[in-house]
């Protein structure tokens, strides 16, 4: 009895340790943030970069994924056609408790860093200088780093032309995202990620083949989700497919502005 009381007391007194890999619980549509899939010539350098940023490597298929709170990073060896800047997804963002401390640590570790507009903002670039990562400050955050946002730059002319309102509405309808604002920008919120939309004064291109090839959402009951989407007129680049060797199911589609999107079910088990 005394031992049981001690265990229960410790359970109350000790703070819960947050999972370094936990993806957010899905919304009513069954959707949450899943992963970012990057193309890189040097996979080893890419993995070292993400580990320095705070990721934990885990086995995935014949390779490994990089786990960070709220997101998984997948790397594929390939020569990308360009970086995030110039594509519809200009950059992605993470939060840390203290930007200046994090930036100093990463700079000392040899990472490419840039100052932001204020002390609560900074930028980090992947080793190939192709993926731009914004770092924002949240002093209340209990983990060293956590995923925060995907920032879309929407051009009104060019191959990925559209309007901010159209993109915001599409993600709300397609994935059950909640429309709102992030600072001056229009935004949608999904569990685990803020989708931020800003007007671009220059044309942008789609993501497929770029350093950030596609973004990924984890979807509960993916097969049913895909059937419902197809019945409403959504065209998939790759229909619902089971990948038992990876322990997941997946499907691919491209939004009307060129963002390549993978839908998965099972990555949250990593």
Structure description:
It is a single chain. This protein is of the alpha+beta class. The protein has one domain (31-269): 2,3-Dihydroxybiphenyl 1,2-Dioxygenase, domain 1, CATH 3.10.180. It contains five helices and 16 strands. It has helices at 2-13, 43-53, 99-108, 164-175, 222-231; strands at residues 31-40, 56-60, 63-68, 71-77, 89-96, 112-115, 121-125, 132-137, 146-155, 178-182, 185-190, 193-200, 212-219, 238-243, 248-254, 260-265. It has an eight-stranded mixed β-sheet, covered by helices on one side. It has an eight-stranded mixed β-sheet with strand order 6-7-8-5-9-12-11-10, covered by helices on one side. Strand 11 (185-190) and strand 12 (193-200) form a beta hairpin. The longest helix has 12 residues, at 2-13. The two termini are 37 Å apart. 41% of the residues are buried.
């Amino acid at each position: 009895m005394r031992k049981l009381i001690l265990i229960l007391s410790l359970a109350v007194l000790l703070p819960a340790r947050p999972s370094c890999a936990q993806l957010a619980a899905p919304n009513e549509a069954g959707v949450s943030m899943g992963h970012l899939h990057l193309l890189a010539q040097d996979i080893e350098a890419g993995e070292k970069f993400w580990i320095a940023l705070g990721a934990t490597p885990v086995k995935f298929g014949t390779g490994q994924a990089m786990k960070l709170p709220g997101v998984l990073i997948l790397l594929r060896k390939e020569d990308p056609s360009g970086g995030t800047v110039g594509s519809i997804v200009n950059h992605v963002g993470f939060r840390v408790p203290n930007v200046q401390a994090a930036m100093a640590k990463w700079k000392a570790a040899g990472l490419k860093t840039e100052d932001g507009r204020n002390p609560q903002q900074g930028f980090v670039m992947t080793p190939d200088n192709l993926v731009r990562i914004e770092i924002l400050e949240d002093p209340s955050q209990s983990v060293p780093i956590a995923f925060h946002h995907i920032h879309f730059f929407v051009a009104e002319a060019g191959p990925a032309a559209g309007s901010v309102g159209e993109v915001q509405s599409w993600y709300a309808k397609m994935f059950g995202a909640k429309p709102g604002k992030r600072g001056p920008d229009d935004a949608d919120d999904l569990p685990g990620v803020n989708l931020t939309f800003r007007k671009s004064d220059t044309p942008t291109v789609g993501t497929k083949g770029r350093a950030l090839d596609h973004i990924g959402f984890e979807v509960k009951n993916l097969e049913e989700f895909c059937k419902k989407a197809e019945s409403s007129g959504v065209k998939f680049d790759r229909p619902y497919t089971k990948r038992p060797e990876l322990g997941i199911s997946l499907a691919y589609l491209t939004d009307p502005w060129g963002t390549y999107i993978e839908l998965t079910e099972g990555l949250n088990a990593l």
